[in-house]
Target: Protein kinase domain-containing protein
Amino acid sequence: MEYVDCQTLDQLLHGEERNCSLSWETRIKIAQGTARALTYLHEGCRVRSNGPLIHGNLNPRNIFVDMDDQEPLLSDFGIAFRTQHSSDSSSSVFQQLQEYAPPDFKRSLPMTTKSDVFSYGMVLLELLTLKRPTSENVSGDMAGWVRDKIHDSYGEVLDPAIFATATTSRKKKIKRVLGLALMCTRDDPETRPSMKEVLEMLIQMKGFRIEGNAVVPTTSEVEEV
Model:
């Protein structure tokens, strides 16, 4: 059996053993890979089963990153498969870390693919800010904290390692990904994008704007990460 050297995303972001900060390129690769895996659960598995699979417990502790190629691997699929074969899709079947749980979970509403989208948005915010939802100055509301702070300065929110010395073009891309994370963490699940839409936007890195509840791409050229 081939040995794969992996660390959890939580270890890479916050562990004592980390030697240097993750580059922007590595962070966006992890974001894209995680979005691709969730898109497969929601869209690809639909063909093989009677509906999409819901992960139900996405957080940095169960995203493993291959240290050779920086590709993310998702773990903790027991919840997803058990939910798919259960007639009960309520939040009671999920054992989710509260800080990454969507409002749907906290209100005991049925869990859907949009519940995974919210948790993904929380992970994306952590990738960009290097702060846990439980960090002291975040006060348990990561998305709300980011929304409040960016009105004053993006520099107060984003990890200086990827933002402070970035070029103007790179800063625009980082801000776009931050905006996407905030769309994923909207309170109303119906207004969150699907994981397929999230993946497409991350891969293409097009500019986009928000019109009402819709995510509207601009006419700008496709940019490379």
The domain at 6-217 is CATH 1.10.510.10 (Transferase(Phosphotransferase); domain 1). Residues 219-225 have pLDDT under 50 and may be disordered. The radius of gyration is 17 Å.
